[in-house]
Specification:
Layout: E1 3-8, H1 12-22, E2 28-34, H2 37-47, E3 51-55, H3 63-73, E4 78-83, H4 88-96, E5 101-104, H5 109-120, E6 125-126, H6 147-157, H7 162-169, H8 173-187, H9 192-201
Parallel strand pairs: 1-2, 1-3, 3-4, 4-5, 5-6
Helix pairs in contact: 2-3, 6-8, 6-9, 7-8
């Protein structure tokens, strides 16, 4: 079966160039090229991509926010961030938001194909220019929570049920459950009481009246 790839970048020359490269491979089909993150979120279920090549810096919905929203809609999608920035902060933030890889826009054409194959195999991919740049985002060794995970942690720490959180954030209960599992895994916490204690100790509940 061919790997279905969606390209999202606000520069037409970039999308057209990558599309031309990928369409030269027999095992890849480009299901669409879009110019902004919001459109990607709205059409991800319709286009059903296996992999999304997603620009990091776009007007409106950024690549980071689009990554979170896309994965809420279609968790099985692998997202590869496209960027001109090779700083550790950009790379670690992209991965913490759920991206499976990070590619600089000046990589050789065959490296894009390698990146797609790698994430389809269930592994993360950092392009040659990004390797060695990663640094821990937080000092205690825990994996950083995304902004959406922080929001859900706040709701859970205030005693909200999965259903309550789903209604508040207008997402499915299944999505909340997935986030909850990821939060517990990242923080190394197994209980809701533990999540509440972590939120209190790390200031997550500040300003909520708790």
């Amino acid at each position: 079966m061919k790997t279905r790839v969606l390209i999202v970048d606000d520069h037409p020359m970039v999308t057209e160039g990558i599309q031309a490269i990928l369409e030269s491979y027999d095992d890849i089909t480009v299901v669409g090229t879009l110019g902004n993150g919001q459109e990607a979120v709205e059409r991800v279920n319709e286009l059903a991509p296996d992999v999304i090549l997603l620009d990091l810096n776009m007007p409106g919905v950024s690549g980071l926010n689009a990554t979170e929203m896309i994965l809420e809609e279609r968790p099985e999608t692998r997202i590869l961030i496209l960027s001109m920035h090779d700083s550790p902060e950009y790379i670690s933030t992209a991965l913490s938001h759920g991206a499976k890889g990070y590619i600089l826009k000046d990589v050789p054409t065959d490296e894009i194909k390698t990146a797609i194959e790698t994430v389809m195999a269930g592994e993360e991919y950092l392009c040659t220019g990004a390797k060695g740049s990663l640094q821990p985002k937080i000092s205690d060794g825990r994996e950083a929570l995304t902004s959406r995970e922080q929001t859900i942690l706040l709701e859970l720490a205030q005693g909200q049920s999965n259903k309550d959180v789903a209604n508040t954030l207008n997402i499915s209960v299944r999505t909340v459950e997935t986030h909850r599992k990821n939060i517990k895994r990242k923080l190394g916490i197994s209980s809701t009481a533990g999540l509440t204690r972590y939120a209190l100790e790390h200031g997550v509940l500040q300003g909520t009246g708790i």
